[in-house]
Amino acid sequence: MIYTLAIETSCDDTSIAIIKDKRTILSNIVSSQQKTHENYGGVVPEVASRLHAETIHSLLELSLTESGISLSQLSQIAVTVGPGLEGCLLVGISVAKSLSYALDIPIIPVNHIHGHIYAFTQYQQTLTYPALALIVSGGHTDLILMEKECSFKCCGRTRDDAAGEVFDKVSRHLSLGYPGGPIIEKTAKQGNMDAFKLPIAMKHSPFEFSFSGLKTATIDCIKSLDNPHDHVADICASFQKTVNETLMLKTLTACDHFKINDLIIGGGVASNQSLMTAFKDRIKSTNINLIHIKPHLCTDNAAMIGLAATHLGNLYQRKRSEIFVNSTFSYEH
């Protein structure tokens, strides 16, 4: 049996997981820093790094206890090496290096985006190629084309703000709190999604996203109202609908262009039920198989990093030396 210890510290969640063989999650502990960062309205990198350092060792002990696995039974260590906040990544990488050296076991560096993609293995074991992944979160809005196993090509991404990022910024202007995604989704349920017409940017570019203009248009809409707090639910509903329409337009255009069979949707924003309902309704008349990563594996967590490492280990082993000279991998291999 192969036991993989996985470490994820790319942003503001500290997470440790233990994976048995290629699919069984024995433990997946996540410590959120949300309460701390909501005081600032967003993630403060230096604070996040310090909290990772303070938390990671106790999470390691807890994960080992929960899984019933000892350090001596571990076969390999997987760790997120990018993309992410450099100081935060360094905490996880340092722990992974130390354990790898002390236990004399391999260390497998994992691209954070690949982790989000390979969470799909909890729902089906293989993909039908070509496949497409929409990874949408506070830091990423990426369309990743997979023409075959171990092949990742970024065919589209946001040119400015990520989708989750604009949820946070619009929420801040409405004084709703942080993080904005869940709050706006809840508030939007009481609103009229057609109350305000907001723009979908970059329609001329089939696979590229832009949300900065939508953010500005929404803020301008808020400022133009005499009593904006009387219209909060309608603003949230209209804004959320426009984000959803933008994501669907670009993603389904890519599906049609590349003749996609399997579509993976992951990342923190994939926890938004209105988005997933909209996607499911839109693809009913197509042959696309939608693989929706469930909320507990959508947000940043170490289990997805371990799953990616166990399926793509040979790919990453060839790149292993890079963990000692840099903290990121390109999408292409």
Describe it for me?
The chain has 333 residues and is α/β, with parallel strands linked by helices. It folds into two domains: 3-117 and 298-324, Nucleotidyltransferase, domain 5 (2-Layer Sandwich); 127-292, Nucleotidyltransferase, domain 5, CATH 3.30.420. Helix content is 43%, strand content 18%. The chain is built from eleven helices and ten strands.
Number of strands: 10
Q: Helicity level, as a percent range?
A: 40-55%
Shape: globular
Poorly predicted residue ranges: 318-333
Let me know the largest β-sheet: 5 strands, mixed
One letter per element, helices H and strands E, the order comes to: EEEHHEHEHEEEHHHHEHEHH
Task: Give the full name of the CATH homologous superfamily of the largest domain.
Answer: ATPase, nucleotide binding domain
Provide a quick synopsis of the model:
This protein has 333 residues and is of the alpha/beta class. It has helices spanning 34-37, 45-67, 86-103, 112-118, 163-173, 180-188, 212-224, 232-258, 273-282, 295-298, 302-318; strands at 3-8, 13-20, 24-32, 76-82, 107-111, 131-136, 141-146, 153-157, 262-266, 289-292.
Question: What descriptive keywords fit this protein?
Answer:
single chain; 333 residues; alpha/beta; Nucleotidyltransferase, domain 5; 2 domains; five-stranded mixed sheet
How is the topology of this model organized?
Elements: E1 3-8, E2 13-20, E3 24-32, H1 34-37, H2 45-67, E4 76-82, H3 86-103, E5 107-111, H4 112-118, E6 131-136, E7 141-146, E8 153-157, H5 163-173, H6 180-188, H7 212-224, H8 232-258, E9 262-266, H9 273-282, E10 289-292, H10 295-298, H11 302-318
Parallel strand pairs: 1-4, 4-5, 6-9, 9-10
Antiparallel strand pairs: 1-2, 2-3, 6-7, 7-8
Helix pairs in contact: 2-3, 4-11, 5-6, 5-7, 6-8, 7-8, 8-9
